[in-house]
Design a protein that fits this description.
The chain is an all-alpha fold. It is 75% helix and 0% strand. The protein contains 5 helices and no strands. Helix 1 packs antiparallel against helix 4 and helix 2 runs antiparallel to helix 3.
Length: 156
Amino acid sequence: MSLDNNDSIIWKPAMSVGVDVIDNDHKKLLNLINEMDYIIHADVTQKYGAIESVISELIDYTIYHFDREEKLMEVCGYPELEKHKRVHESLKSQVQTYMDSYQRTPQQFKPEAMRIFLNLWLVDHIMSMDKDYESWMQGKNEIIKKTNAEFETLSN
């Protein structure tokens, strides 16, 4: 997959992991990354404030999504859960580093670099690591639905 400074990512059915709530989370994350792409290329008067807002929402939603995904992997008995959690921690750290860089020197911040990194990381993560747990969640709709309802109740 090749990305340049003008590419956004479009959700494709091949990216589905077979669990609607996780697929919907992935779609929202892609939309946030695409929103950053729009802000980068638009003539937005308050560009840097808008970028900070999107990065902040991206951090918050990424944490929310990772927590949900890890909980569902746990109840489905996914054996690579700990490895997956370490990868999630690494991404959260990298995104926080981008936010810290932005907050230190917003005029020198390169949002294009962050957007390209996130595009590549998210698509690769979905298509490799997330697709790996797909088979562990098949046929477990009831426990996924129950666990997700509990997760959403606790998260609100």
